[in-house]
Records
---
Amino acid sequence: MNGKNISEVIKLKRRLYIELLRLVKTGKLAEEISNLSQKMITKDSPRYRCCEFKERAIFDQRIKAVMGFNIASNKDKSLKELAKSLPRQGKKRNIVEVIDTACDSCPIDKYLVTDACRNCVAHKCVNVCPVNAIVIIQNKAYIDQDKCVECGKCAGACSYNAILENQRPCSRACELDAISSDSNRQAKIDREKCVSCGSCITACPFGAITETGDLIQVALELFSEKNSLAAMLAPSFVGQFGYQQSPAKIKYGLKKLGFEEVKEVAAGAEITAAAESKELKEKIMEEETLLSSCCPAFKRMVLNEFESLSRLISNTDSPMAVTAQKIKNENNKLKTIFIGPCTAKKEEALQNENVDYVLTFEELLALFTAHNINLAEIEEAEKLEDAGVLGRQFAYAGGLQKSLRELVKVDYKSKQIDGLGRLKKELYLIKAKKNNYNFLEGMACTGGCIGGPSAMISKGAAKKLVQNFAESN
Amino acid sequence: MPKNTLKICIGTPCHLMGASELLELINELDQNLRDKIELKTSHCIDDCCEQAPVAEFNGRIYQDLNPEKLYKIIRDNIR
């Protein structure tokens, strides 16, 4: 919850989760799903677009994403048709997607000519514009916004810096420049660059960028009671499910919800740390640098943009992968569900055969709510003590670095950086061999996982709670 | 003894809709204002979970809150 407020967009999404889950619970998903947008968006509900019909059209797209379907590739399929095809086989899909009907093609995002324009003789802006969108009107350059393709050449060309770039919230939030605009000026995601970090989803005030999820699939599995499910709680889960709701109570709540097993991913993190410490010792001997691999967004960025550095990424499996493997080894019939604050983990899970589904904290809370399980009213608890401090402190930035310090006794230098933009700069330094350390802990989100896009409480509070929990075992 | 009572629901539906932000707001209140309020938490206020998050200030129930709304309610109704 990176200092952001829970906006109407987020509330609407969470209400939708609850309504869909209630339909699953009553077994009426396919039957009622086509009427849901009509039920939830009435003539009198707050409206942000031209009419309630457009609101509903957008809402229907959102429903598709919540059910785990890509919007663009399922444009022609009805909600009913899609609902009937659940549970879906196969895992291929995009995690982050633009709802094109919701994207407002942000008019604020154009290039603006300010009063600094002198109507100079050179007219570099007019000359450089590839689509002839700039004309001179009343002694000033004027950009025809219908023609403008937002290439930015005019702003670069102007000798007076008179042309202002007014960036969209989504592309400003994306530190990897993965968002551009298409010919209709709608947001477009470059799949070669996107690491599914989720920043754009949080940033868009129209809620026009969304994530596809496993929530409905998991609910169907839970309600069908044919399958046994294992919940894997990310190390950052402490405190995320409500004020003073203890880990032991959350474990009890998950069992009540129908999960057969509840495991801490921190237990896998301990195994990851041990394996990574061995790799690190080798790298120290070789005078090389090891890059951490537990943050999937950071790892993906290295693979996408720094191919020559990919050999430096730790080969150790992520805590999620290790935990899932362990569960499957013990009982192959269990389906594994990772629960965390992260959209990039959804992407990682698509590539991992041992992880069946991923839920975010907010998705799990919606599941509790739809099931009328109020954690605050539960008195019972079930002890959760799968891991110690070395695994549990993975939840915050610097935790992994600290665990490795414990495990690697030799003297070495290491560095910890959070935030994709800062990491990218650092990787350039490593590429040029201008770094003086043997280990880089890279976390895409500021503050580490506790600062993830689906975190429910502030980073500061979360860190304290994780630390207390870590020291309790 | 503070003259005002604020009860914030920390039940799961309210937490999902932002109860933690309301609690944070109270922690960040001006000390003058904070000293006048006794903060309590509740597991559920009046069963109005559909209108979460919910809080009760000096006996009156307020629904569909956010930190800004709650701040105004406190400022306008404080004794």
---
Amino acid sequence: MSKNKVLMCGNEACGEGAMAAGCTFYAGYPITPQNELISYMAKRINETDGAFVQAESELAAISMVLGAAAAGVRAMTSSSSPGISLKQEGISYLSACELPCVIVNMQRGGPGLGNIAPSQSDYFQAVKGGGHGDYKLIVLAPMSVQELFDLTFLAFDLADKYRNPVFILGDGLLGQMMEPLVISSDMRPTHYNKSWALTGCKGRKPGIIRSLLLGDGVLEAHNRHMQDKFSLIKKTETRVQHFNTRDADIILVAYGSVARIAKAAMESARAKGLKVGFIRPITLWPFPDKAIEDASAHAGKFLVVEMSAGQMVEDVRLAVNGKARVEFYGRMGGGVPCEEEILACVEASLKSGGAAR
Amino acid sequence: MAKVKISKAKCKGCYLCVVNCPNSLIKIEKDLNIKGVKGVYFSGGKCTGCGMCAVICPDGAIEVYRQI
Amino acid sequence: MKKTKKIKKTKKVKKTKKVKKEVAFKNVTPNPASLRTVDNHYCAGCGHGIVHRLVCEAIDEYGIRERVIAVAPVGCAVIAYEYWDFDVTEAPHGRTPAVATGIKRVRPNNIVFTYQGDGDLAAIGTAEIIHAANRGENITVIFINNGVYGMTGGQMAPTTLAGQKTSTTIFGRSLRREGYPLKILEMLAILPGVKYAERVAVNSAHEVLRAKRAISKAFKMQIDGKGFSIVEVLSMCPTYWGMTPIQAADRIKNEVATFYPLGVIKSC
């Protein structure tokens, strides 16, 4: 096994992770701050037998992915916040039709056209729905260029395993930053049998990919099947990291690029003798409720830090279920918190009890 | 010689076959069929087996047999 | 010793029977194998039943059933896959050509066609059809134009004619308020990526046979790798035109086809 170390920006690392996972179809539309990804896929896919299409819109792109996924190949699209809004109908269809694919959101400031700075204000859209109907996406939150590669690679396997779209929730900061990326030569995507795929009905009964189920009780049964699938995913695919939580008086909770900043704040706090811990969800869905619930048994406070008006904090509150105080610090509209701000929040909270949000 | 078979079960009573038969050999039934409409029937006579009735039928209710 | 009688073998005389001459008949309009024989849900006199059959006849003619992957629309034909015996996928409304693009790009040897109504193709899906055509995707598009939205209760379509009453133009389509009927086939024909565009109708057996030829040609274009082909089919919607099927068929001849002329618009 050999390892290749390159300096790459996050967007490109995501693309390279897709290529390593055997992605053979990409459709997308340019939107900042993920344009490096679409250009990278244009270059890389055309070096293989795969297909790249710069679609006329994000609407068209998600539908092209639907077609490619229905035809049994590993397919991906990417966008940023407003474009992800456009994709919601298609995402609902993909989940309902049990089609695997990977969707990447490099979040930007919103709402509306917003700005091109990073944000985390699409958490609800990714985790609570966004599209219509009872469906869930596996949502992965990388916090480094390496993880953009690793988690995108993982996303394709999970998508095929569960026949459901998998969502990478990044942001403009992660997409643009440049860090070393280590790629080992023995990475192999897992192969999943796709007997359900539409390939031309030679030697079998014709296949139908559909989500319209009008028969009496049929759609409800399908929903129950989907919910069973989501329950299984919750049991087996939750990913989380803990740092210094055992003796913590206050536990920071953050994901994505904010996780890096929060982790640094935790380390500074510890250096000052403050008992600060940090929980970092890697899967935002399934959300690591148990890790947070367990931590709430001994930590008196949680401080959730997000680049939003407060979205993940609601899931933390649900998991804590009143057993501890949950506080929030956020920056909106493209604002990025720095270590000092978070530290100041932590200190104020520990001193005065703070105002619960 | 030719003959026309019309499925009473499939006919929806659109009567497009009636106006497309060049010899007006397809007629409207007096009674309602299983679909609750007055279907059509082949009245016999000089059928050339042109098949136009079957060509226009949207429901595959008509089969035309031509003598070979 | 017993004497064995010599048995004279007598020649059997064949009795000639008067054999009735068997009259053989051949079904000259057999149901295409790709078309399931179940009853369809379309209204009496709707053109969908006819065009579904024509598509299947073309597919059987070229023996491509096992290569076909179809994309069904949203509209009255949303459950077209109940009637077709080959692979079919659903698509979000209007995105049909984009879904077809995704399939054809990853499976270029499969025969991919879309089957769309006037809402799916000319309203919500205008961008998708223009760009699939402009990219010259090697797919076949069957466009059913009946000038109204049937599935949802007879609302105005982009192809509704001036003065036509629908559930959203109850006094008749006003050009000033609702704009003009869209001649999308003529618009698409301008694009170099479009290699074959023809408008046909299914209002008479004669026109159905023309439509059959056009649809067959459109599939052949794809089989030969010649590029994007589209056949627009003027079809009856007796229910939402408020007419009998025969009246609807006449309306196509007298009114619809004068605005949307039949014939080859482009052939490369």
